[in-house]
Please model this.
Amino acid sequence: MKFLLSILLPLMLGLIPAPVDYKPAKGSSSVDRVVVRKPSRVLKKATAELPDFSRNEAYRLRIGRRRVVIEAYTPEGVFRARKSLEQLQALGNVPRGIILDYPRFRHRGLMIDESRSFKGMDFLKKQMDAMALLKFNILHLHLDDSAGWRIESEAYPLLTEKTAWRIGQLYWDWEKNGYPFVDKDHPQAYGGCYSPAEMRELVAYAAERHITIIPEIEMPGHSMEVTTAYPEVACQREDGTRFKGAWDVCPGSEATFQLFETVLSEVMDIFPSEYIHIGGDEASMYSWTKCVNCRRRMEEEGFTDIRQLQGYLVRRIEAFVRSRGRQIIGWDEILETGVPQTAVIQSWRGVSGGKKANAAGHKVVMSPNSHVYFDYYQDLIRKEPPACGELTSLRHVYSYEPVAPGMDESLVLGLQANLWCEYIPTCEHAEYMLWPRAFAIAETGWSPAGSKDPDGFRKRALAMQDVLRAAGYNTFDLRTETNLARSGYRTFEDYAAAGLEDPAGIPTEE
Ligand code: ACM
Ligand code: ZN
Model:
């Protein structure tokens, strides 16, 4: 009974993520005064065995009739406590009692794709406000891709001058029209970019909320905008001509390393994050097979397989970033062509890359497209705006456990949802795809392993979505969610096989 209560009581509060422990007392608090104290013996004892990252965010919240006492080791712990209190106030009731809390993982993140559609400062600040409320601590910004480069470079100004504006707000319209980039003042120009000053402002805004921004500078694939702005980083044919607007940059050319190392230096000046994301996914390697510079590089390095060029580029960039005191994160492809163990691997093609990387001693961030791709449908195709992938409902996201059997949990930094924006041309739509599904990431990243309760979580998520909606967020409305999405099954077949009826029905009980 005592064991059961220790699991159920933290869920009763309505907080997302659910706290580690809650001891209730009778009545509610008017929260007239909030006092911050050093850690008590109780908190020290409860957190003695925790890893540093978790203790740093730990807090104890004693909620009295009028007075609330926060205990924590760090300003970050105090901040997390304040956000718990803020949630309870927003939910309309601050029950008395004692909350003890700390995170399971050190990386609780969201990725936003700024290239396929440009969001701007207000949007990112607004999302970070919600992220802070939910105890997220990582915002990964995908700052460049074929559809546009989004951060001004002093040394390479054409990256944004030539590719930050295009015709076609929807990525697919731009693609259909043959990828037209235009000048900023073209009457049909869509796009934008961030200045270094704006990015610094955003970094400071994030830091105030104990969020780290991880910038991503993608290479060598997804790079049509780079090869358009600076053709010297594209592959070269025997006759001296360049591959125009090539998907991949050329790992045979020194101009490529000059550009990326210079840009990364600028980026590292702006973003203080320990980790710098360098992409690394989906290189087509098409132009490499036909390029004189790539051929020369292969001969010099004694390579026999074209894929070794990807490993060459990633290792050189990894060493460069490490020489500046930072470490790289790369999508799981980078594992396949050889990279030092200091590289963090982000598993996206399901969990297999994460498992392999973990077994090889790499730290990993789990963001498998099987569970946490937020450009995927969150409900039936017939009722949702165009999206992609399989049904990825709130319940499905919530079912994800980042540490697969056999994995070394100490090397799992955490998890992250990715919001790719080929289908998401506006900020309103981006919000709709993020919330409330991101609640499930927040809880999986923070709350103890084995504490999941899908039905109870859904109730808490309903209340929390209303908190966000009241604050002006355009969330998906769980009240419109169909039976299929609510069930967590992904197909009509699985739903029917479980003996359930009316998958497209929408219950009205809430
Ligand atoms: C990815 O989704 N291509 C990392
Ligand atoms: Zn080449």
